[in-house]
Design brief:
elongated; alpha+beta
Length: 118
């Protein structure tokens, strides 16, 4: 536990399905922050926009905590997409029936850290 864990940011209760956001997160794992931000800027998915906002916050946390850091020295150490609660809505169907519509939520955790050895 004495090892430094990095700088993190968490966004909670985002209305997006975790199964749709995870493939976007897998693209930017273990990349430098500048490269990851460039990739996320050019992806059309909603999950890319959500991850980009959380990553900006993690980078800002790192730069605020350590004034000697440069954004080029940071990389995405960990990115985790967890499932949040589900909003349950009624979806009215034909002939007086109804179905349950689940609006899924996710929690995004981004951990950035300093590159070692450079």
């Amino acid at each position: 536990m004495s090892e430094k864990t990095g700088y993190r940011a968490v966004s909670k209760f985002l209305i997006a399905s975790p199964t749709k956001v995870r493939p976007v997160a897998n693209v930017v794992k273990q990349k430098t922050c500048s490269e990851a931000m460039a990739i996320l800027e050019n992806m059309p998915q909603k999950g890319a926009r959500l991850i980009r906002g959380t990553m900006k916050s993690a980078i800002a946390n790192a730069l605020y905590a350590n004034k000697q850091l440069d954004e080029d020295m940071l990389y995405v150490k960990e990115i985790r997409i967890d499932e949040g609660p589900r909003l349950k809505r009624v979806w009215f169907r034909a002939r007086g029936r109804a179905d349950m519509l689940l609006k899924r939520m996710c929690h995004i955790t981004v951990v950035v850290d300093e590159k070692a050895g450079e």
